[in-house]
Amino acid sequence: MERIPIFAANWKMNKTIKESAEFFKEFIYNISGIVDREIVIAPAFTCLQEIKAMLQKENSNISLCAQNMHFKDAGAFTGEISPVMLQEIGVKRVIIGHSERRHIFGEDNNFIALKVISAFNYGILPILCVGEKLEEREGNKTFKVIDEQLSKGLSEVKEDFLKDLVIAYEPVWAIGTGKTATPLQAQEVHEYIRNWFEKKYNLSLAKIVRILYGGSVTHDNIKFLMDCPDVDGVLVGGASLKNDLFTKIIKYDII
Ligand code: 13P
After folding, report:
1. Within-domain flag for 47
2. Does the Cβ of 170 fall within 6 Å of ligand 1?
3. Phi, psi angle pair for 232, to nearest 5°
4. Per-residue pLDDT tens for 165-188?
5. Could you tell me if residue 102 is inside a domain?
6. Is residue 1 part of a domain?
7. Contact 139 CB / ligand 1 (< 6 Å)
8. Which domain does 161 fall in, by range?
């Protein structure tokens, strides 16, 4: 089965409702007619509803994505957003375990695992982020870290759900640093992840699971990354905030 490439924008804590509406006005036009790849946008929580309405009005097939969620459906969790709330808006995907959540906000693999199960249970498809820190790479611990993030992060997930799972490999040292992994470095880890799914589950699942690369992706390096056989798309931070730059990334082989 062919793996449809994904071009995902993680806007992090950027763009107000007004700014995202401005982005979309032009962006929807720029990417109209593209049907052979999935375009995903993860704006701030405050913008989700407005953007959903805009996408519906324009009949756009862009996938709306949340940047995070709590695993409980409701309760005394000040400042959190539940899967039920995301479901109500009609969010298709959710980013879980982003390195900024792990390393700034202290989320560990066990907490992340609960979110992955919860997302699937509520029909929101998770993009599970994994990736090593610089000192872990330099200490030859990259595969050990990835193995642990996958083993623990997916520990309780029913196998039936996994065909809809997306993994994002985001080496922490490449995020927002302008230091992209070389295609060789990216391919090596992506291949490790695909083999991990084959060993742990089976070959047909390994062939289906989409693995995105994230970390200083730009229109200058996208082609080299997409040429890697196990890179099925990208999760873009900084360069996704500008309409023309993100469009160039999405259309890297068209224009
Ligand atoms: P940058 O593209 O800004 O490096 O961010 C990557 C990222 O964290 C996407 O989730």
Report:
1. yes
2. yes
3. -105, 15
4. 999 999 999 998 888 899 999 999
5. yes
6. no
7. no
8. 6-250
Span 49-79, pLDDT tens digits: 999 999 999 988 899 999 999 999 999 999 9
- Distance from the alpha carbon of residue 10 to the mean position of ligand 1, in angstroms: 7
For residue 237, tell me if it sits in a domain.
yes
In this prediction, residue 1 carries a pLDDT of 63
User: What amino acid positions are annotated as catalytic residues?
Assistant: 98, 170
Can you tell me which atom of ligand 1 is nearest the CA of 176?
4
Nearest CA to ligand 1 atom 5: 237
* pLDDT beyond 70 at 163: yes
CA of 136 to the centre of ligand 1 (A): 19
- Quick check: CB of 97 below 6 Å from ligand 1? no
The CATH number of the domain holding residue 118 is: 3.20.20.70
Domain count, the chain: 1
